[in-house]
Design brief:
Its EC number is 1.1.1.157, 1.1.1.35. This is 3-hydroxybutyryl-CoA dehydrogenase 3-hydroxyacyl-CoA dehydrogenase. It comes from hydrothermal vent metagenome. It is a single chain. This protein is of the alpha/beta class. Helix 2 packs antiparallel against helix 3. It is elongated and about 75 Å long. The mean pLDDT is 93. It binds nicotinamide-adenine-dinucleotide (NAD). The site of nicotinamide-adenine-dinucleotide (NAD) has 24 residues, from helix 1 and helix 4.
Length: 362
């Protein structure tokens, strides 16, 4: 259904549209990018040029290919220029009414066999398809920011999306070097749904004074292995965007508490502390601001505890310890769920608070 000859239309020359245009052009397609704003088109073009220059600098492409990449993309204010596109990916403002108005215009110029996809993050694909002339030819292609770097694309089928078109779109995304996954049309799809508790717990821990922001981000980042902690990531994304997404997913799931937005984050937004883009969010980004340090006690190897002892029936734990090269001994009297380090008893997390665990131990 799609091949390199397929002309790709992209609506919106913003952060996502410009990135998606680069991805398609890198895969060899001719691309037309539509925006309603000339300045946005100029910014999009500049972003594509920077993207091509970065690929050239990293040795991924040569100078001729960098020029060809840029010249494969044209920029327009005229919807009519999207005639002849086999696939149009819409990445305009996240507003259902504005998207709908554009779809009506698009349908009047697109071929009857062409496919229309939305990059929406939070709107229902099925409800965006309502009123379209050809709902089976409409689906979600949800790229992540920045599109040229982030590998994942969620292929979101609405109620009426044609499974054969979803399969073809998925294969196309794979040819574009992406990891494409099928997602159902549920609020947040996959990623934004599973990410909500990540942010939410970070904020709740801050609100409940479990630690200061720098310490909590440090725990997520340096100890749990996330690329960034939830608070600093919110500063990067913008708390206005992040808390609006939290609110919309919370509402869409009828107020399930695990999706509850954070009042502390809402206060930041109300105060205009949106994150890096406004110079201040959870952290202060002004030039003279001191970077807060995480609050923890570093153990040095010399004073590290001596001997670890585990109880019987801990085969899985013992094999992990062996694999990590950690010495231990086995003591019959140690109860399940506990270990000893020198003379200190350590209880394993099992969902109870440390206080409840200690009480159960006594
Ligand atoms: N920013 C992200 O991290 C991200 C990630 C995934 C998906 N998305 C989704 O992608 C879409 C675009 O987001 P973005 O961050 O690129 O927004 P953006 O604000 O950077 O860009 C949107 C562009 O659309 C243009 N536009 C608005 N109405 C238009 C119309 N009627 N016709 C043509 N152009 C129009 C605007 O001029 C602007 O240039 C949204 O649906 C958003 O939910 C965003």
């Amino acid at each position: 259904m799609f091949n390199t000859e397929t002309r790709i239309g992209v609506c919106g020359a913003g952060a996502m549209g410009a990135g998606i245009a680069q991805v398609a052009a890198q895969a060899g397609h001719n691309v037309v990018v539509l925006d309603r704003d000339d300045a946005a088109l100029a910014r999009g073009r500049e972003s594509l040029q920077k993207g091509a220059a970065a690929l050239l600098k990293r040795g991924k492409i040569d100078a001729a290919e960098a020029d060809a990449l840029v010249s494969r993309v044209s920029w327009t204010l005229d919807v009519g220029a999207l005639a002849g596109a086999g696939l149009v990916i819409e990445a305009i403002v996240e507003d259902a009414a504005i998207k709908h108005a554009l779809y009506v215009q698009l349908e009047s110029v697109m071929d009857s066999s062409a496919v229309l996809a939305t990059n929406t993050s939070s709107l229902s694909v099925s409800s965006l398809a309502e009123g379209l002339a050809r709902p089976p030819q409409f689906l979600g292609l949800h790229f992540f920011n920045p599109a040229p770097i982030m590998k994942l694309v969620e292929v979101v089928s609405g109620v009426d999306s044609d499974p054969a078109i979803a399969a073809a779109a998925r294969a196309l995304m794979q040819r574009w070097g992406k990891v494409a996954v099928n997602a159902r049309d549920v609020p947040g799809f996959i990623v934004n749904r599973v990410a909500r508790p990540f942010y939410g717990e970070g904020w709740r821990a801050l609100e409940e004074d479990a630690g200061d922001a720098a310490t909590l981000d440090f725990l997520y980042r340096d100890l749990a292995g996330f690329r960034m902690g939830p608070l600093e990531l919110g500063d990067l994304i913008g708390h206005d965007i992040n808390s609006a997404a939290a609110q919309s997913i919370f509402d869409a799931y009828d107020g399930r508490t695990r999706f509850a937005p954070s009042p502390a984050q809402a206060r930041l937004v109300a105060a205009g502390r949106l994150g890096r883009k406004s110079g201040r969010g959870v952290y202060d980004y002004s030039d003279d601001a001191e970077k807060p340090a995480p609050n923890f006690v570093e153990t040095d190897r010399q004073s590290a505890p001596g001997m670890l002892a585990v109880g019987p029936d801990t085969a899985a734990l013992q094999s992990l310890l062996k694999a990590a090269g950690i010495q231990f001994e086995m003591k019959q009297h140690i109860e399940p769920g506990f270990a000893e380090i020198d003379n200190v008893v350590v209880g394993f997390c099992d969902g109870r608070s440390a206080g409840a665990l200690a009480a159960a131990f006594q």
